[in-house]
Task: inverse folding
């Protein structure tokens, strides 16, 4: 079931962005701390570009902390953010294509379980369309795009990873992965869902389902059981695309390093980049402490989530991006725009979500509260930094609720899937875990 | 059986969840109790006011003997005579600045002139949100003969490092100097001349004699703007024409070096505090001279309470002035207020008998006076417009207070004038000494407070209580409404589809609010457009305010109709009224919460109108099905409240209550009032159009809701 007027709505979103870019000069979005962080600010990029043009190291003066590649690509375009509109549009189209791929994979796995009537019965709104429209019309994505910071590019790279992995294009996935990690390092943890996606494919019902199916069938019909077990085997993890991916990963990363070293050749080479770019995010005396506090939390979550959600690698990728947006240093609304866009891919599973009203108005409230608190702190001086920090806390709480709610619902919908597929009867055959708080 | 078994197996919900469910099921009672308590707490506020106290130890007001003596008074008199002579010689506004500059130069101070143009009317409703740095960009081209000229003198502190400064401001009209302005100028000059001789200064003193021919605020804000935003000659042409015009006015052709020196903008350090003082025009009859303190800056910001404390302490306990703040004098004589005061007094005495520590038994006159002062304080803060030129300082985070001296003598009375000058000078000197002692910015005492008397205040922790009580039922009611509509949906689901879950139905259950959110978004979009319309309407030249207002109203209605045609009218969208009301209440909670941070007083006054209005709103059609008595009560109250909630009507009633005159030209007045608000970039304008108006419209939608969709659905099932 495709969405009516999809293209007109997408075009309207792009048009809206263009109007804001061309006539919204008075909004000063680029100076909002919620939109552009020290790592993504295009003003700092302009400074780095200017330094580079003056044949100095772009990292001298410690204004710029971005990639040297961005300097060459975006440097000449710093006063025109039309390129970000195009970037956002491409990202939305890739999200849409990812949604299609997921849909096809889901239908295929349903068919492989002999559930053709389920395929035709299920009222599935095209999740890809919804997701891309959410991404295009998300006010935060619009603000990030118009406020000209580099996070649309980072988001595009993450979307490229997911799209490449879903459609099993190892070179594309490897390219996206290398670029995304090069630009902001946090997407590095997406290696787990990529490998799962490449190995298993976008949607694999757990092996338990097949076994249950077989055992259920064996109760009723033995001959059918033999037929099914012989024809449709449980899908195994295939190493070939993963190896393929690894090779491309090596190729792209050496290519990126080569490019960077060429760009920075005159001003200290790669050493400069590693010293000033990758490790220049925090103060000297707290560096190790902050590195641990900020980043260990993210790393702690990687493994348990990977174990629990390995059957739905795409959802795993969404949860990872959500957690990164929550816990990264220098968060911005651009990160939220990314994971909210990805959330739309699971619109069918999450139709029953709780607290949607609360979350919706909570997000609106927080995004309005943040400039007010900033005003109180910076311009009026009657508040202090804690006021602004409190907004950040509320924002993180909302994100936590969203991620936890959607994970619980997703897991429950997996379980409901068992019931749905007629594998588990309403009787006390197998106690299904129901996830509560 | 199976379902009951699963229910038993369900874990018992947590206490907080059960509490929430309990509150939601009794939400009508809860909201009635909370709203009543909120209104009572608001009336109780004057009884809860505390005496002010000095928080910052470094201030130690009154500990040093003031040096201001009769010689300085003589100096002041000489200065006044000089100005009179200078103005007598020639007409025009240039002689006084020249004379003041000459006198200051004789004292050894650094002197310069600052010219400025009057502010043009601008529509910038969001300006308060950003910095104040960009507001000098718009300057008209061409030569203007009509300049305001501020004369500024700076005394460099002998013991300071030039990093901090205290600003003294005396406004006067250079076109026509009144005797009271002459008195305030001579007071300023005598203090300045004293300060140029003392050895203890550690902060530079800047004396700004502000030319108030375009209004005090304009002069001071223009000077502050240039003080804080150095101009790097990015517009050399405009600057040159401006300078040329000014120079021609002030100077004779000779003396170019001196001219350049007098035109160069000089600065002292960061402004630590500012004191604006002037002598009132009218003679106030009384036993003592009085000082009126004005403190409200833009959007309800107040200077640090310590500054007011210092002024009050020195004025009352050292110099024997009577200190006032602004008040609603009509309230002082109102009889119903006296009745309320009696009631509270009796309650207070009872409470005092229960616990002697509760000192809530204010006497009746105290309560009435406190209420009148508090009402004026809340009104001025809620309007969001500064009550004087101190507001310009607050925009740069500088604490400032305006003192208006009200002499109890006739200005021709030389003896009384000398005594007044002596005490006024000593007061100013004492305040300067105290601020001079400061080691840091004012930060110890309160920034968020309301005054019920010059020495009594209500801090943020206390005045929040009524507002919090008014706001508390809103989330509960929203949850109850959303929850009740959800259970209804679930029941529908269950009766329709058993066993196999149907995605579409569930989606309707969980995401049903999306429709009402869409209605809300359309209405908010409309509100944004309506709030921006005046920018375009005010470009139309030469129309009456009433014409502007009518154009505004017609355009707003047209836009609303167009939007409904584009996105679908909420009456046909099939939105359940309970969800619509829940959405409305949630937006009010958000809007009120945000507004209470930006400008608390506006939110407080708005909550008094808006919250009962939205709590009472129910579809009229549903009300008709009730029995007679509750029906009439509900009907009348909801219609009355909705009528009251419409901004122009609210304005009319407020206007009538405050002035006592019920004018016919309400529409034109409303336009003028709105113009006033956006010219001063008050956040109240945004509140009225982005929070109040959309909620009012949603309320209308709820009232007129056809509310037959659910029933028809039921029949279909």
Result:
């Amino acid at each position: 079931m495709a969405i009516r007027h999809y293209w007109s709505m997408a075009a309207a979103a792009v048009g809206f962005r263009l109007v804001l870019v061309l006539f919204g000069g008075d909004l000063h979005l680029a100076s909002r701390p919620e939109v552009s962080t020290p790592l993504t600010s295009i003003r700092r990029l302009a400074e780095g570009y200017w330094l580079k043009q003056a044949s100095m190291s772009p990292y001298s003066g410690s204004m710029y902390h971005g990639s040297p590649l961005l300097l060459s690509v975006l440097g000449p375009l710093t006063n025109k953010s039309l390129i970000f509109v195009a970037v956002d549009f491409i990202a939305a189209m890739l999200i849409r294509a990812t949604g299609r791929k997921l849909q096809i994979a889901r239908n295929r796995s349903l068919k492989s379980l002999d559930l053709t009537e389920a395929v035709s019965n299920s009222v599935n709104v095209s999740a890809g369309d919804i997701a891309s429209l959410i991404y295009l019309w998300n006010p935060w994505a619009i603000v990030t795009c118009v406020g000209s910071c580099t996070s649309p590019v980072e988001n595009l790279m993450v979307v490229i990873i997911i799209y490449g992995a879903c459609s099993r294009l190892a070179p594309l996935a490897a390219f996206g992965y290398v670029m995304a990690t090069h630009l902001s390092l946090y997407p590095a943890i997406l290696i787990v869902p990529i490998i799962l996606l490449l190995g298993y494919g976008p949607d694999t019902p757990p092996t338990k389902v097949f076994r249950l199916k077989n055992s259920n069938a064996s109760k009723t019909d033995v001959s059918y059981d033999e037929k099914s077990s012989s024809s449709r085997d449980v899908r195994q993890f295939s190493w070939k695309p993963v190896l393929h991916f690894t090779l491309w990963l090596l190729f792209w990363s050496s290519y990126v390093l080569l490019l960077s070293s060429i760009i920075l050749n005159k001003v200290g080479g790669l050493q400069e980049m590693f010293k000033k770019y990758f490790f220049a995010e925090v103060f000297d005396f707290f560096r190790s402490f902050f590195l641990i506090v900020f980043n260990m939390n993210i790393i702690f979550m990687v493994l348990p989530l990977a174990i629990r959600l390995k059957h739905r690698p795409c959802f795993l990728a969404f949860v990872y991006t959500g957690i990164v947006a929550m816990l990264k240093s220098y968060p911005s609304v651009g990160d939220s725009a990314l994971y909210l866009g990805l959330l739309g891919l699971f619109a069918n599973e999450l139709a029953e979500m709780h607290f949607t009203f609360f979350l919706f108005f909570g997000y609106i409230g927080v995004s309005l509260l943040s400039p007010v608190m900033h005003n109180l702190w910076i311009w009026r001086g009657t508040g202090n930094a804690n006021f602004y920090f409190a907004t950040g806390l509320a924002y993180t709480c909302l994100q936590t609720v969203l991620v936890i709610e959607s994970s619980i619902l997703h897991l429950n919908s997996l379980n409901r899937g068992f019931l749905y597929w007629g594998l588990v009867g309403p009787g006390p055959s197998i106690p299904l875990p129901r996830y509560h708080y | 059986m199976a379902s009951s078994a699963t229910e038993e197996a369900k874990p018992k919900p947590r206490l907080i969840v059960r509490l929430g469910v309990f509150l939601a099921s009794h939400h009508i009672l809860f909201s009635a109790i909370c709203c009543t308590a909120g209104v009572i707490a608001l009336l109780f506020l004057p009884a809860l006011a505390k005496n002010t106290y000095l928080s910052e130890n470094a201030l130690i007001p009154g500990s040093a003997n003031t040096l201001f003596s009769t010689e300085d008074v003589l100096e002041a008199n000489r200065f006044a005579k000089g100005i009179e002579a200078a103005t007598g010689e020639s007409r025009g506004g240039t002689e006084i600045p020249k004379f003041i500059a000459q006198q200051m130069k004789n004292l050894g101070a650094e002197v310069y002139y600052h010219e400025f143009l009057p502010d043009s009317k601008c529509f910038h409703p969001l300006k308060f949100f950003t910095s104040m740095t960009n507001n000098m960009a718009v300057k008209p081209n061409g030569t203007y003969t009509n300049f305001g000229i501020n004369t500024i003198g700076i005394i460099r502190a002998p013991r300071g490092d030039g990093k901090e400064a205290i600003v003294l401001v005396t406004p006067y009209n250079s076109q026509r100097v009144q005797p009271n302005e002459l008195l305030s100028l001579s007071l300023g000059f005598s203090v300045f001349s004293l300060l140029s001789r003392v050895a203890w200064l550690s902060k530079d003193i800047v004396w700004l004699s502000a030319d108030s021919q375009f209004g005090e605020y304009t002069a001071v804000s223009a000077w502050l703007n240039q003080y804080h935003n150095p101009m790097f000659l990015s517009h050399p042409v405009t600057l040159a024409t401006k300078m040329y015009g000014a120079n021609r006015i002030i100077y004779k052709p000779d003396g170019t070096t001196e001219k350049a020196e007098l035109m160069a903008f000089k600065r002292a350090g960061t402004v630590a505090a500012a004191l604006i003082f002037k002598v009132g025009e009218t003679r106030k009859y009384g036993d003592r001279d009085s000082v009126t303190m004005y403190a409200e800056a833009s959007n309800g910001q107040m200077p640090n309470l310590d500054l007011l404390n210092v002024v009050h302490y020195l004025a009352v306990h050292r110099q024997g002035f009577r200190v006032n703040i602004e008040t609603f004098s009509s309230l002082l004589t109102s009889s119903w207020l006296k009745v309320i005061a009696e009631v509270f007094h009796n309650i207070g005495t009872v409470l005092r008998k229960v616990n002697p520590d509760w000192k809530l038994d204010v006497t009746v006159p105290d309560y009435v006076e406190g209420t009148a002062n508090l009402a004026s304080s809340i009104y001025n803060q809620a309007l969001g417009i500064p009550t004087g030129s101190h507001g310009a300082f607050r925009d740069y985070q500088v604490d400032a207070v305006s003192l208006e001296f009200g002499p109890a003598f006739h200005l021709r009375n030389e003896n009384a004038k000398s005594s007044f000058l002596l005490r006024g000078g000593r007061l100013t000197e004492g305040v300067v000494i105290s601020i001079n002692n400061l080691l840091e910015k004012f930060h110890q005492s309160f920034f968020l407070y309301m005054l019920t008397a010059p020495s009594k205040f209500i801090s943020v922790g206390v005045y929040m209580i009524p507002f919090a009580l008014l706001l508390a039922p809103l989330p509960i009611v929203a949850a109850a409404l959303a929850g009740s509509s959800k259970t209804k949906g679930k029941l529908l689901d269950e009766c329709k589809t058993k066993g196999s879950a149907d995605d579409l139905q569930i989606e309707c259950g969980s995401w049903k609010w999306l429709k009402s959110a869409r209605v809300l978004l359309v209405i908010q979009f409309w509100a944004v457009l309506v709030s921006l319309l005046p920018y375009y309407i005010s470009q139309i030249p030469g129309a009456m305010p009433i014409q502007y207002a009518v154009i505004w109203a017609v355009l707003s209605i047209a836009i609303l109709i167009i939007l409904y045609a584009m996105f679908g009218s909420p009456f046909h969208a099939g939105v359940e009224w309970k969800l619509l009301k829940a959405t409305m209440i949630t937006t009010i909670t958000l809007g009120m919460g945000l507004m209470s941070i930006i400008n608390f007083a506006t939110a407080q006054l708005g909550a008094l109108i808006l919250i009962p209005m939205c709590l009472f709103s129910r579809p009229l059609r549903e009300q008709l099905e009730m029995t007679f008595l509750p029906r009439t009560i509900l009907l009348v109250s909801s219609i009355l409240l909705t009528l009251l909630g419409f901004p122009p009507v609210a304005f009319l009633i407020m206007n009538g209550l405050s002035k006592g005159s019920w004018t016919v030209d309400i529409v034109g007045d409303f336009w003028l009032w709105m113009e006033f608000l956006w010219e001063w970039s008050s956040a109240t304008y945004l509140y009225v159009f982005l929070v109040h108006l959309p909620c009012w419209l949603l309320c209308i939608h709820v009232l007129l809701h056809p509310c037959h969709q659910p029933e028809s659905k039921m029949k279909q099932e």
Notes: The CA atoms of residues 353 and 405 of chain A lie 7 Å apart.
